[in-house]
Amino acid sequence: MKNLKLAIVDDHELFLYGIAYLLEKKLGRNNFLKFSEAKDVLTYLRSGQEIDILISDIDMPDMDGIKLLSNVKREFPKTKVLMLSASNDQGTIQLCQNLGAEGYVSKDCYRSTLFEGLTEIFKGSYYFSKGTEDRETSSHADLYTMLSEKYRLTGRESEILQLILNEYVTSEIAEKLSCSIFTVKTHRRNLLKKMDVRNLAGLIRIVNDLEFRFFEK
């Protein structure tokens, strides 16, 4: 792992340099790339430079970690991404998985958890840290998989469904997935057609009914 090019992006300077310090102590090196804005990561990659593993915060101004993840995985699929967030929201974790993140750890985790996650990703595996909401997260992941299989949703339709259920409006979905509003509306229309409902209320009714039966098992 010592030869990997690692990068960290976080808008909080104290946390940014704190993570870098922990990695320096663990790996015995101090040449980590540090970015305070997500757009600077894309500028760096688009200049022809490479990043092996990117550790990214989610809540950042201008461009958040979800949009950064979407862009990185679309343009630079070889770059592995470990999401680092203060949130353990199951919808966010599942969305990161669907967008291609190799890992997700909470900011309040032990440093050993962060190192373990990086090690697993380095070995070509995935790492989503265990937490108090693991059972619920796993169950929701299975629920989304069930919905995708039942209604034969595409990967993008499944992502949009999750964002809709997490109360994102069309413009916010377009921004997070780095696509046009027209594209989002097209996917949403196809989504409603496949699920045989006329509007958002019908979609939510189907999901709630399936979720109730799923968690009653």
From TrEMBL:
InterPro entries reported for this sequence: CheY-like_superfamily, EvgA-like, NreC/VraR/RcsB-like_REC, Sig_transdc_resp-reg_C-effctor, Sig_transdc_resp-reg_receiver, Tscrpt_reg_LuxR_C, WH-like_DNA-bd_sf
Pfam family, one: Response_reg
The HTH luxR-type domain, residue ranges: 146-211
Superkingdom of source: Bacteria
UniProt keyword annotations, A-Z: DNA-binding, Phosphoprotein
GO biological process terms, semicolon-separated: phosphorelay signal transduction system; regulation of DNA-templated transcription
GO molecular function, one term: DNA binding
Signal peptide stretch: none
Annotated positions of the 4-aspartylphosphate modification: D57
Residue ranges of domain Response regulatory in the record: 5-122
PANTHER family found in the cross-reference section: HTH-TYPE TRANSCRIPTIONAL REGULATOR YHJB-RELATED
Protein name: DNA-binding NarL/FixJ family response regulator
Lineage: Bacteria, Pseudomonadati, Bacteroidota, Cytophagia, Cytophagales
